[in-house]
Amino acid sequence: AQTVTQSQPEMSVQEAETVTLSCTYDTSESNYYLFWYKQPPSRQMILVIRQEAYKQQNATENRFSVNFQKAAKSFSLKISDSQLGDTAMYFCAFVSDDKIIFGKGTRLHILP
Amino acid sequence: DAGVIQSPRHEVTEMGQEVTLRCKPISGHNSLFWYRQTMMRGLELLIYFNNNVPIDDSGMPEDRFSAKMPNASFSTLKIQPSEPRDSAVYFCASSFYRDGNQPQHFGDGTRLSIL
Lengths: 112, 115
Fold this sequence. Notes:
The complex is a heterodimer. Chain A is mainly beta. Chain A contains no helices and 12 strands. In chain A, the strands form 3 sheets. In chain A, strands 2, 5, 6, 10, 11 and 12 form a 6-stranded mixed beta sheet that branches. In chain A, 34% of the residues are buried. By secondary structure, chain B is mainly β. In chain B, 0% of the residues lie in helices and 54% in strands. In chain B, strands 2, 4, 5, 6, 9, 10 and 11 form a 7-stranded mixed beta sheet that branches. Chain A binds chain B through residues 33, 35, 37, 39-41, 43-45, 47, 50, 88-89, 93, 95, 98, 100, 102, 104-105, 107, and chain B through 31, 33, 35, 37, 39, 41-43, 45, 48, 56, 89, 91, 95, 97, 100-104, 106, 109, 111.
């Protein structure tokens, strides 16, 4: 069975700093997708970044980038130049066919 | 504790037919969310309810989609008429909203295929 582990329940960093959120997963499948979602106080899940497992190149979206290590089954999210609006819960998700498995989330606080 | 229960697990139907997806949230939760999941776009929020009242339905793609929550323990998402581009996995999630973030609990999803 697939599992997704986020080992950091809560983190705090100063505004403008860089922060890395960790995510590891376990699967025997070869084709899958990985996502990072943000859940701000508005509560809806917002897609931050996605990575196809067959792509070796790490995905990047503006200040957000991932470090995807397929062999190690690791998918960390790096937020550069963090902003107050980045304060939220962040969820790592593993998706394969019609399965979506979320990690338990990391609560990120960006401090002024 | 029973989690969020969705039915059916899979649905295959021909275009033009009406499709109804069902969701039973976790008892005691006061917020319910309907999402559509595709590989390309990830999770897209369609609509969410708070205390059975629709709060934000801006994600509902078109008038063919409608959602109801007649009571705290049941919600439906209806597509009429269905089209092949509606094929996706539809997730229901619930949470208890008091203040700030509360984790959402997701159902297993309904895989919808429109032929």
